[in-house]
Structures are given as structure tokens and as C-alpha cells.
From TrEMBL, chain A:
Keywords: Flavoprotein, Oxidoreductase. GO terms for molecular function: acyl-CoA dehydrogenase activity. It comes from the Bacteria. Residues 191-311 form the Acyl-CoA dehydrogenase/oxidase C-terminal domain. GO terms for cellular component: cytoplasm. This is Alkylation response protein AidB-like acyl-CoA dehydrogenase. One of its GO terms (biological process) is fatty acid beta-oxidation using acyl-CoA dehydrogenase. InterPro entries: Acyl-CoA_dehydrogenase, AcylCo_DH-like_C, AcylCo_DH/oxidase_C.
From TrEMBL, chain B:
One of its GO terms (molecular function) is oxidoreductase activity, acting on the CH-CH group of donors. This is Alkylation response protein AidB-like acyl-CoA dehydrogenase. Keywords: FAD, Flavoprotein, Oxidoreductase. InterPro entries: Acyl-CoA_Oxase/DH_mid-dom, Acyl-CoA_Oxase/DH_mid-dom_sf, AcylCo_DH-like_C, AcylCo_DH/oxidase_C, AcylCoA_DH/ox_N, AcylCoA_DH/ox_N_sf, AcylCoA_DH/oxidase_NM_dom_sf, Mycobact_Acyl-CoA_DH. Residues 6-123 form the Acyl-CoA dehydrogenase/oxidase N-terminal domain. One of its GO terms (cellular component) is plasma membrane. Belongs to the acyl-CoA dehydrogenase family. Residues 129-223 form the Acyl-CoA oxidase/dehydrogenase middle domain. Pfam families: Acyl-CoA_dh_1 (PF00441), Acyl-CoA_dh_M (PF02770), Acyl-CoA_dh_N (PF02771).
Amino acid sequence: MDFDFSFEQRLLGESVGRMLAGFPAATDHPFPYPASDVTRAAADLGLFASDDGVPILGAVDAVAAALEIGRALPAAPLTEMLAASLALAGSPAIADVLCAGEPVGVAVTGAVAPDGGRALVPFAHEARLFVLPVAAGGHRTWHVVNRSEVTLDAADLFDVASSAAWVSLSAKPADHSAASVAGRLDDLLALLVLAEMTGAAAYALDLTVGYAKERRQFGRPIGQNQAIKHMAADAAVAVETMKAAVEYAAWCIDTAPEELDEPAGEARLALLSTRSHVGGHARRVAEACVQMHGGIAFTWDYGLHRTLKRIVTRQTTLAAPRASREALADVLMAAADA
Amino acid sequence: MDVSFTAEQEAFRRDLRAWIAKTLPADWAGPRFTGPADEDENARFQTWWERTLYDAGYQGIHWPTAYGGQGLGIVEQLIAAEEFGRASAPEGINTIGKELVGPIVLAVGSEEQKRELIPRLLRLDDIWCQGFSEPEAGSDLAGLRTRAVREGDHWVVNGQKLWTSFARHANKCILLARTDPDAPKHKGLTLFVLDMRTPGITVRPVRQMTDRREFNEVFLDNVRIPAGMHLGGINEGWHAAVGVLGFERATARLYRQARFQAEFSELLRLLAARPEKAGDGWFRQTVGTLAAELRMLRLLNLKTASRIATGKGIGSEASIVKLFWSELHQRITTFALEVLGEDFAAGTPGVARFRYLYLQARAETLYAGTSEIQRSIIAERMLGLPR
């Protein structure tokens, strides 16, 4: 029993954090650097590497990295590519591109189909290759699609630290079956996005605690007020449980991924409860952090809105807390009925 | 990262689960969920349960064998807690001894005290109660007024204690009293071992909102404690009492999660029997939310066990666990109101357990440090916000 990151995992998180600290905060278009600067730097750290079709990083390693991505929020699809590199290391159509750190467009919501449909893809304008869910005959499978096969329609994204486009198929891809990719992209994408949200919430709380120690009103630091302390304590409880949740779900996925296929498998239940919990609490933490700061947090330049907006964007797309609670209720009520 | 149990630990769990199934009364966890309603009959039952535990080798699981413990690790303690909780097993009559006195004695007691008190506690030769809180010293425990004055080879104690669970059944009390009235609040306190048969002690049960009488007032009128019957140093009682509590706050209640899980499962059965609610979106969302939160509590427990097992220790994390479990239990028992609806108010078979738990959960955010105290501890000691 050692429910904590290993030395190597902590080291990985630290080096990702250091690498991302080298990029200025992105809040206004055009961003101060192309996404490929970040994705290549991440590739240099081996974040997307695979060896003979097997990803170098496990889910727990990736969570350690995604927590740091959430803290920094770089203008690049790092979390999405991290998930793709774990899920699709065995797909020659994409593994090399990921490995090299070329920006890849991974859909975060929606699905495309030959006769319509669209998917939301972060940093689509900078991507050469896309990984899109294609809906056909009631099924939804992930496909690798070339830039030449899609049409982009810029989205007005709530998240200011990202850009995105609605992607639709411009022509039927030459050979669908060949481009289809197996893997657990849906689950890994959800897991790492939840870790990113957790890292973002933890960052917001750290920033807030630091501010509450310095900012003085009525002749004393605002952090001396019990109203602030108790709000911060509740946020800390949320952050601790969120961290434990993403770490444990990742460990389950590393240890017994086949249990994702069982409706009541441990990995499946761990992921669903993480979606329910992180999906709800990350936003509450960020909102509480705005409240604890006071007016400064409402300004654009202070930057806390980046974190809030990223979390809200994730909650309303990938985290899907409401659907996950319904899925949990399904499993549990079926067991209670039996 | 490794959140697994070893094969030996899994075997320990299997054996214990089988032992509990064959040892607990067959109708346990049904109407008898808290033991007999009669206070004395219940005391006899709870005593029987703890002696049976001791005989089977399930008392003092992570305490040293030198003092009668099993010498196993904190992970085995967690497993045992989960299995007892899963069966909603009786909490026993000596929880104060096991959860509070034992750890304090092991931490600050003399070698002689360890050899004397720990085995007696495990065998249930001693049943303990806790004399800390007072009418004017609740959350502000350091404000306690009970005085112990040295007279020759005795201490003479005068004062009043409140919320003293098990005082009617206990033969020993771990008593916190002021020995130096001139010292600052947190100094000048000493922790004593008090024999409850000493003249001058009056115990008066307090009727609680659950209609049970577990708590007592204890009046101390010129009670004489022999010199030397103190735990830790004279005037160092605050450290002895409170320093150890943080660790215990995190580890003593590990069984709660499995207990709440068992209650929640029962609640889901009651919900499934009410189709108009079982299909309702609000109920299903709440089921999902609470199920996820129960899992979060288990992860916090696993983290706690892991930190202790790997020698990292427990600090203000203990307050996070206490705050989370006590408030989660209120959310679960409040959900029971919604599931049971008018049956909760009017009374049908099966509601008694949830009526009791709903009320009992009101106490849980108050005792062992209120939620507000826990929040302040988290803010000041973990986050470092200014006092």
C-alpha cells in the first residue's frame, strides 16, 4: 500500500511544470506562441512517446503530468494529445506524429458523420491530423482523419486559454476502416481532463491562499477572517478528494483496464465517481476562489478567469458529471433491485 | 503508486469476514442495528462482543504484541475496520479505551503504565470513559476549570465533566484537570487515570435527542487520585490529550466509511421499493453524488493508512477526514428523509434505523471537534492562513 506518486512520477510532474512555466500566460488571440512550440517541448520530455506500440507513460504518470497542465493552462492541446498518445500508441497512423509532438486535433465533444455532424476540436487550426469520433450505424468509433478531409468552423470558445473549431467531414474519408483506431480514448481523455481540472482547482486555491495572506482590509490580512478561512478549508477538502480520485482511477486503469468494460468493474466505477465528483467540485472551488479574492479576480489582467473558464468548459464538455451520476445510479439501483 | 492489498492482507480480510458472519447474531443490522434498547442489556451485549473479539485475536490489531496487541500493520487495521463497518458491527462499549486511551498510553505512558493498562483495556478488564469536556469548555477545551490540587500523596479533584460517554459502565476515566491555575490556558493541565469507584464521583445520565442515554454528566467532589496516576508529565496534559488526538481522529474512525456504505445500500433497497422515486431524476442524481462521495471517503482512508504505513505521518489531513465523513453522513441521512418521506414521519418498520442515524449524525459534526473547529485547523495549519 503506497497511495502516492512515486519519486519518478513526482519528478515527471516537476519537469512538466518547469517546462510550462517557460511559456507566458495566454489570454488573448493571437496567443504569444504557436501551439506547436509547447507540444514539441512536451514531446522532448517524452510525454507522447511510445515504444513498439506501447506508450511509455502509464495512466498514473499521465495524471501527474495533467495536474501540472491544469496549473499552467498552456495554449496547446497537451491534455488531449497525452490521452491520445496513451490510447493510440498502437496506431501507426498517428503514433509517430504524436511522438514528434506535432499538434493533433482531438475532439472533446460531438461526433462527425459522412452525412453531417460536427465535433469540437481544440487548436484545430494548428493541427495537421485529427482524431475524431465518427458516428455511423448507431456506432461511434474513433478515426484518424487528415486536414484535407475536414472543414473547420471557428468556435467562440468560453475558454480563453484555448482556441477551437467545429470540425466536420468535407468528404468521406478514403477508407474509413483503415483509419479507425482502437483504444480507450474516451476513458483516458475523461481521466486526464479530470486531472487537468483538479490541477487547475489546486492552482486557484494556492493563488487564493497566497493572496489572502497578503491582502489587507480593516487593518489586517483578509485571510484572518473566519469567513475566508472556512471557504478556503472547504476548497481544500474538495481539492484533496479530487486528487485522490484521479490518482486512484488512473491506478485502476493501469492495473486492471479490462474492468473498464464491466459496468460494475472497479475501474469503471472509479472513473464514473471521479467524473461525478471532480466534474462538480472543480468549478465550485474556482468560483469560491474568485469570491475569496474579491474584486481583483473580476479583472481580466489578474488572470484567475482563465482557470475558471477552462474548468467550466471542461465540465460542460468532457467531465459530464450529470451523465456519470445517472450511470452510477443505474448500476447501483440495478444491484439494489436484484 | 500501489493501492493494492497483499495476498496475506486479502486472506486476513476473508477470514475476518467469515468470522464476523458466524459470530454476530443472525438478525444483526436489521432492527437490532444499535443493540438492545435497554441501556444495561445493551452494555452486557456490547461487553460480550468486545470480549469475543479479544478471544478471537481481533483487538488491538496494530498495537505491539508486548502489550497484548496483534502487532499487525495499519493496513490490517484498515481492513478490519472495513469489515466491521461492512457488517455494521457493534461499536463496542470500550471505544474510548480503544480509540483514545490506548493511543495516549502508547504515546506518552510509562513502560509500567503500558504493561498494566493496555492488556487490561484489550481484555475488557477496564472500560474507560473520557473526562475532557465541561459545561464551560466545549470547543474551547483548554478553558476547562476542573481543578486538581496536590495534598500529600494525593491529588484532590473538584469540578464537573459533560458528554462523558459510557461513564455509567466505566471503571476508569481518563481525566483532564487543571493542576497549575497560574499557567497560560494550554499549560497547567494534567491527564490522570481516575478509578471511577473512588468516593466523590456522581454520574448523571443525559437524555439525548435520540432518546438514548449514552452521555453523562460527571460531578467530582473532593475526589482523591493517588500521586503518580498521571499520563505524561504534570502540566503536560494538553500535549498528551490533544497531540495524540490528531492521529486518532484519522485512524480510529476508519470503520465509518464501510458503515455508511452499508446504510447507503439499505437506503437504495428502500428506494428501489418506491418506483415513483427510483425513476426520478433528482433521486438518481443524488444516488450518484453520494455513491461517488462514499468512494472519496474510502480513498481518504486509504491515503491515511498509506501515509502511516510509509512513515509519512498524519497532520491536519485528519481534520479533512473528520470534516468530510461527518458532513457526508449528514447528507446520506438527510437523503433518507427524502427516500422515506411520510414513512419517516409516521413510522413504518424499517425507518427506526434511519430516524436514529439522522439524529445521531447531528452529533457527529459537533463531537471530536465541530466542523467549524476542523475548518479553522485546515485553514491555519494546512493552508497557513494567519490566526
